[in-house]
Specification:
With 139 residues, the protein is mainly alpha-helical. Helix content is 74%, strand content 0%. Helix 4 packs across helix 7. The radius of gyration is 18 Å and the shape is elongated. The two termini are 33 Å apart.
């Protein structure tokens, strides 16, 4: 509809997929380690709901902490101490940093996709700024 070439459309699709995934990873991180006030009732709800986010899946691969994490993710707990324990385990396994770096790598890949196609400078700048915002937002 926008009159782009097939190459541009495919590049923008790839850019969108990578930045969308990075946005979701950042959202998952904010649910765990963001400010409770910003998240209101949803703070750490991913743990309560037992969601298998990238952070959780990565942490579950640590055999030493696997069973305790499974128990916490299946408990449906809203107890702040248990939720904090899960976050502590995510940090101990390096899973929070792993997810953060994964999101940053996705954004770097997405930016490279844009570097390889012809775009209006204003459009390119807007997309690059959006990509940065997706992983830098604080709530």
């Amino acid at each position: 509809m926008g009159g782009g070439s097939e190459e541009q459309v495919e590049a923008l699709r790839g850019f969108g997929m990578k930045t969308g995934l990075a946005f979701q990873i950042q959202d998952d991180l904010l649910n765990l380690i963001g400010k409770a006030e910003a998240n209101n009732k949803d703070f750490r709800s991913d743990i309560t709901e037992g969601k298998r986010t990238l952070v959780a899946v990565h942490a579950l691969s640590d055999a030493r902490r696997h069973d305790e994490l499974v128990d916490l993710l299946h408990a449906g707990t809203t107890d702040p101490a248990e939720l904090q324990r899960a976050v502590d385990l995510f940090e101990e396994t390096g899973s929070i940093e792993y997810a953060r770096q994964y999101a940053l790598d996705l954004i770097a890949d997405a930016k490279q996709i844009l570097a390889d196609i012809e775009l209006e400078p204003v459009s390119r700048e807007l997309l690059l700024n959006m990509a940065d915002f997706f992983v830098e937002r604080l709530n």
